[in-house]
Amino acid sequence: MFRRRACKARSTPVRADALKLESMEMLLREKLAYNMRVARERSGISQRRFGMMVGLSRSHVMDIESARVNITLDTLERVAHGLGVEPWELLI
After folding, report:
1. What is the CA radius of gyration of the chain?
2. What pLDDT is attached to residue 14?
3. pTM of the model
4. What is residue 56's three-state secondary structure?
């Protein structure tokens, strides 16, 4: 039988600018996810086929399009190239 550990209260307060940065990152990740999915669907390419085109697994493509994961700049470039757009276009 497993025992749960008691959670400790946070001893230092969270800085407001850290929360703002965290929310900005989520918004950018969500923009990327939306723009990537729309561009891929407009091209009529499945997640599986797109993943094969750019060297990613279907599950990783799904995770990116669901805004569940952060991606590297290298992956952003590969995704943009596969969609025929500039990397910055996926972030606006």
Report:
1. 18
2. 46
3. 0.72
4. coil
